[in-house]
Amino acid sequence: MPTTKQKLSLNADGRIWITTPEGKFVGKGRIELLEKIKQFGSIRQAALAMQMSYRQAWQLIDDMNSKAKTPLVISSRGGKGGGSAVVTEKGEQLIVLFIAFNKKFQQFLARQDKGFGF
Amino acid sequence: MPTTKQKLSLNADGRIWITTPEGKFVGKGRIELLEKIKQFGSIRQAALAMQMSYRQAWQLIDDMNSKAKTPLVISSRGGKGGGSAVVTEKGEQLIVLFIAFNKKFQQFLARQDKGFGF
DNA sequence: CATCGTTATTCTTAAATAGGTATAACGATT
DNA sequence: AATCGTTATACCTATTTAAGAATAACGATG
């Protein structure tokens, strides 16, 4: 048997995000961060769970909150537990919106790479 | 007239690329590079036209060629003009493939952000 | 009123990335 | 065999980016 020409297996890949006129608003990472904050009620714990530095987590949230007219996360310091952070109703809406968007995108990708004979 | 609640204008955005089992194969930038090489017949001129360093252009092509079983670009040095580079038939096929893929993606994005009331 | 863990912020360091410079190899053309 | 502009490659430097360390502010709770 002679050597057959191996077809190169190609796959469609990509990333999506949502922008405001001021630039990037949310992508996969930021949405995951919002979800973790919702889960733990804490920026620090959320960051820890994602192996992200608190510093970066705080900056991302600060950026999101300043771009959204209504804050997505409300935080408070001191008191029981040292402080806390909660995802607002707007924040939860955004999570839902992005997840739906991303699901459609993944389906789009899966459709595409079936036609990638090469 | 009281202050009306300004709706935040959101837009869907993203990037796509094609991968092999060894990692990223081509995206928008690499395809554009292939197109410029086809146009000029020279890696250096192609890089110049894209405001890309020759170094980076060469590395990108080297990476693509080593991932593809059949080279996408064939270069030669010396001779008339100092040397040259041509995009192979496989390379041209890949350009067509990616452009079609990307066009569908742009249409997908345009469809999505119509539903972004926020 | 001392403790606690978190939020909020600044400053310094390290790591990753990109870019520039330099130079050899090459072969048609003159 | 000298010239030319390009390919090919190594090496060094700067820029950007991310990470880490340190510290003040905070308020419920005991």
What is the average of the pLDDT values of chain A? 93
* Radius of gyration over C-alpha positions of chain A, nearest whole angstrom: 20 Å
Q: How do the strands line up in the largest sheet of chain A?
A: 1-2
N-to-C SSE string of chain A, H for helix and E for strand: EEHHHEEH
Main sheet of chain A? 2 strands, antiparallel
Structural classification of chain A: alpha+beta
Can you lay out the helices and strands and say which pair or pack?
The structure is a homodimer of 118-residue chains.
Chain A: E1 11-20, E2 23-26, H1 28-40, H2 43-49, H3 54-67, E3 73-77, E4 83-87, H4 89-112
The structure holds a DNA duplex (30 and 30 nucleotides).
Task: Write a structural description.
Two copies of one chain form a homodimer. In chain A, the strands form two sheets. The first copy, chain A, has a two-stranded antiparallel ribbon. In chain A, strands 3-4 form a two-stranded antiparallel ribbon. Chain A is of the alpha+beta class and 118 residues long. The longest helix of chain A has 24 residues. In chain A, 49% of the residues lie in helices and 20% in strands. Chains A and B meet through strand 1 and helix 4 of A and strand 1 and helix 4 of B. The structure holds a DNA duplex (30 and 30 nucleotides).
